[in-house]
Structure prediction request, 355 residues.
Amino acid sequence: MDWWRCISIRLELNIKLSLNDNMYENLVKTILNEYDGFIQTLILPSKETNGTGTCNSSLFVEGEKIHLIMRHVEYTLYHSEGDQKYQTVWEGPLSYYHREDCRTLKTNNFYCLLDNETLSIKTYHKIDTSQLDVEPLWDFVGLEDARLVKWNETYYLCGVRRDTTTNGQGRMELSEIDIGSDSVKEIRRNRIEVPDKNSYCEKNWMPILNKPFHFVKWANPTEVVKANLESNLSERVFLSNIKEKLPYEIRGGTPLIKWKENQYLCICHDVDYRPKNHNGHKDSDYYHRFIIFNDNYHIDKISGQFNFMTAKIEFCIGLAQYKDDILITFGFQDNSSYIIRINKDRLDDLICTKL
Prediction:
């Protein structure tokens, strides 16, 4: 009996180790060198950013138009990696640097159109939110990690806002935007409440592009909700009874796009978050996974963990198909944003053979 128990414990440990060790380093390098991929840096003029960070851009393809929402943060993130040599004993491996007269973590969003060949930013407009802005009550200001969708002929930004309460409670908001030739304005703002009103932070819901107002709220087990813009409430429409055994909780990421027949593709992330490391400082390591859902929202495949360019802090909310290619955008350490292009069939091969 003890012998079988020892084998059981050893097998369980091996499974845990294989899950934690299943990290694919530098996916971008593989896409460029082995899969004929392409990468472009997404840059806004410094007069718009004052040298602070851009990151976490989202994509929406509409015919020949490649729309992009660029997140601009009015800070610079410093994250110590490798040997983790901190700049000061007080700040630790993860620090935010602001202007001296501004201690908030503020987000601005820019609407951009990309060049169809080079994927560089062709035109941009800072989204005008002045019609609906009020005095913020919390230090995280603005709509964070906004995914652009078009539902019922209306464009919405779907992101989290945390500046409406004094404790930073986060809720998903759908911001309707009017895209003009010389300006982009937010004209309506819906804050979506959840049944559990004590929930602290709802964020990173993944829009299902071909199902208006439907989101994958959680990936494992899969939970799908629908937002009602009349009542500003969400309701659960699906909850899976299957939970995969993984080392960390899977969090949201990109919209779900149509993949093969009766399938959706998205990119999620999971985080090794440490409120206190060995020196008493907080730190985070981000990992990403491709997930393929069937059209009943059950998971057909979860890839192994990967990073894009080996940074500990990377984040991906952009995924779209343009002709025969898949476009992916990601932020690097909250300081820069990139877009990569890979043929759809080549991506399918990469997911199946490398991940």
Remarks:
- DSSP finds four helices and 26 strands in the chain.
- The two ends are 37 Å apart (CA to CA).
